[in-house]
Amino acid sequence: AGGDRLRISSALDQYFPALKTAGPTTELETQVAALALSIHREAKKSEDPGVWKAADRLYASFHTHFPASTHAQVWYFGAQRQEELGQTWQAVAEYQKAGEISEFENRDDSALTVLRILRGKLDRLSLKNPSDRSPHREEYARTAEAARWYLQHFSGAQEAGVAARIYLEALDEGGEFLAASTYVASLFEGLAKNFHGLQSESWDLYLTHNARLYKAQRWKDAHDLAVQLLQSSIFTAPEQGEFLQKLRRFYQETGFQVAH
């Protein structure tokens, strides 16, 4: 049974260039999407290795020939399969594609699954010796980029704060301290621009980032950020006095370290 299904992806790979030249392939795309999902369901039901192989091959062919497809279920269930195979970055890419399709009913779940995968990656990286983390900078960079994707597409979601923490942690732990400082500063600038008061979540992100700067003895970076934040109009409001006092203390501490 699996062999017959394997021939489907082979035929698609062989004849697709000619079919594409002949005209629109929208109907073919829909048919292949339905077939891929059908074989996936059959594989889950039978647990036949041959059928699983056919499903994986057809998903791969679909992704190759229809990379801009809006058939969200193919991306969503294909991503689940990639997770099962341990191909987590490929899974992230496919969950992202599903999450970008606004009418997809599992759009939010796709995006949240991206965050779950990213959180797991950071947790595993945190177990490594800090002195051995430089070889993993690419992993941190990819994690930051994927978290930024969530912030761009789901900025108003309740879990945006989770994405922000993942983004900041990935930047800091990957050694991208200046990029992390720029992000923190942008949060305060955004609040000031929209006439919002200081929000505890933004302040907590600053404290977390500042603590990492202290730990890495990046005194000038910490001082420069404190200087920038002190210029924010947010701290002119009387109710921000407690935050302003702490920020001034960081400014003084880091200034002393820079001078000495």
Percent of residues in helices: over 70%
Number of strands: 0
Number of helices: 12
Contiguous runs where pLDDT drops below 50 for at least 5 residues: none
Overall average pLDDT: 88
Structural category is mainly alpha
Could you tell me the strand content as a percent range? under 5%
Tags for this model:
12 helices, mainly alpha, single chain, 260 residues
Question: How would you characterize this protein structure?
Answer:
With 260 residues, the chain is an all-alpha fold. 77% of the residues lie in helices and 0% in strands. Helix 5 (88-99) packs antiparallel against helix 6 (107-126) and helix 8 packs parallel to helix 10.
Structure in a nutshell:
The chain is mainly α and 260 residues long.
What is the topology?
Blueprint: H1 2-22, H2 26-46, H3 49-65, H4 72-84, H5 88-99, H6 107-126, H7 137-153, H8 160-173, H9 177-193, H10 200-215, H11 219-230, H12 241-259
